[in-house]
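dude i think i finally got it to work??
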Amino acid sequence: MTDDTPDSPGPDRTPGTADEFDRREALRAVAAVVRGDGIEVDRDSTPARWSVAVVHPVSVPGTDRKLKLRFKVALGPLPEVEAELWGLLTSDEGFGRPQAKALGKKVKAACLSSPAIEKAKARVDGWFASMAQRAAGFGESWRPKGFADELGRVVGFGGRIPRLQTLLDAMEEAFSTSAARAGLKVRRERLETASGMGVYLDSFATARAMVRKLRLFVGPTNSGKTHAAMDRLAEAESGCYLAPLRLLALEGQEALETRGRPCSLVTGEERDVRPGASFTSSTIEMVNTVKVWGACVIDEIQMIGDPDRGWAWTQAVAGVAAPEILMTGSADAIPYLKRLADALGEELEVVEFTRKSPLRVQEERVKLSEVKSGDALIAFSRKDVMALRHDLLGRGHNVAVIYGALSPEVRRAEARRFRDGTADVLVATDAIGMGLNLPVARVVLSTTRKYDGREERELTPSEIRQIGGRAGRFGMHEDGRVAVLEGENINPVRRALTSPPVPPEDPRSWISPNLSHVEAIARELDTDSLAKVLRTAGQELLRANQTFRMTDLEQRIQAAAAVDRARLPLADRDMLARCPIDTRDQNNLRLLGGWAINQGKGLRNSAPDAAERFRHNVGTDVELEKAERAVKELTAYAWLAYRFPDAYPEMDLCQERRAHLNAFIERTLAERSLARACPVCGTRLKANHRFRVCDACYGSRVEERRGGRRGGAERPEKAGGEKTDAHPQHFHHGAGRDGRKSPLPGRERAAGRRR
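look at this
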């Protein structure tokens, strides 16, 4: 007899009696006898509850896959066994090995013949029958073999044997996951069919009815490819030039007119229609895909790979109705265009151009003290551009600046200052990568990282080539050089300029839902919410499409949420959601939402009047930034005025105020020294003031913190009682508006850390 089963009563036990401890020990002995048959007992319950492990082979419906399911079936008490156990325990003979073996045989017979086993197997079979019936509703979207493989992994339970209900729950969860995927696929297919986005190319009926030739003029910056394309365009009877920026569209208009071709200009905010002109230069989003042209030039075609704006290049390549489509750009575009040309069933001819003047990598890092006339320093935020400008002015340079917040008119004026020698050094963001022909001898990168609106990342080789290629303008400099500031790594620049382009992981072109797509999706979803329509399109459509993928719709969705409150037709709200505002700025979203609500009520919207605050000659650094924001608001108003003239009737006043602000910004940037002001109260600061805010405002904030009134304190007031639009970001030293640290060490950053 083992030590698990007593042969006789213990020394303290009275024959003919038994207690709960004796009962549990006896049950353990019986369980040991039947354990090999998969039978287990819960000894702590009264009466004891038994269970048995069952093996049940099943076939997965729709496949030839067979699974052996193992699960435990709860049988509950065995009253006859329980009574006999107590009888043996209280007998004079007692409970020993022979009694345990005899009782074990009875337990085995009772358990294995229990009707609960067949009921459990029937539950499993019933679940598979139900699963097969539900899966049939998904049609071809259901993948039974894939589900069988998933089920095989689920029912293994890592070698453990689960209870029946646990097994059924796990199988149901696996089916629900697979069914959700299949159901979503059915929903996606239905939405793509209903919206027409699954057959995107068919929406350009005029272009599809033509025999077109696609020609790609590919080469680095300063290789003459765009000049050659414009020569060919001017030979046609009519044509259009499509550019990524208003600045480039304006240059395109001038280029065609110098070739004797009257040309109209069409951008989102303006129309310059020349009587009798058969040529049009426009920003690419304004492309006309209905009119038949003699030829078309699509500039900066590598932008087709951009997740935010690439859809406009896809639309132009696929939709322009012209027998010859000329595309100019870098070799990065080739994989995208080959995939797109195959889908179009059209021939793609690639014509390669070589750079006219060599471009070299300067291995030596450049100190700020070594910056010289003809250099262009590149930063990637407005704050860093202005910091570099300040440092270079202090070293005796005349500096022109170009960055994204500036209007096209101001950018052009700053480029003119650099071109005519009024400014000897240019400080710019990557905005100079397109649309400006500048006499740059050397491009110096202040950093090889940038914040792209989502994350801070390394510059791509394409970006480095595009920016660096601005160095060494043919006819002005024998060669161009690309360098980095002291402390930066030259290796990314060297790799980008000496290695061929790396093909993209996903060469599918980006597309965006137009109005007809939006209205069709809304009908399918039975909703009037533009934000819901766009969110559904962004999340569910084109997942499996081999040619196209959905563009990033997040900014459009945010704008849609702002205008959805207005009582306007879906088409009007969709147009409003495309308005060129900065959706990261809540003030801009509120402005757009307010305009939309007024429009829905039939009220007229007045042009923003912030320009009236800038009637003086030049401004401070704070006023400059506010003026830039005011220009953006006026630009958005002008964009809407062209589309809804009745709701936005003050176009002339808008353009007048915009011109006034641009002139104010130009004068301010041309100043040798940019006056500083407190961003909270507007008080002018001394040139040697160590901090961004004035002492009074800083002291007020310290008092607020001490008093625990961080969120509820009144804002400081200017003279006359006017409250300022103070933002918490103005108190953050050493970081830009996106929270990134400046790449430049400086007195202001150090002072900010001390405070």
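Confidence is low (pLDDT under 50) at residues 1-11, 709-755.
im so relieved honestly
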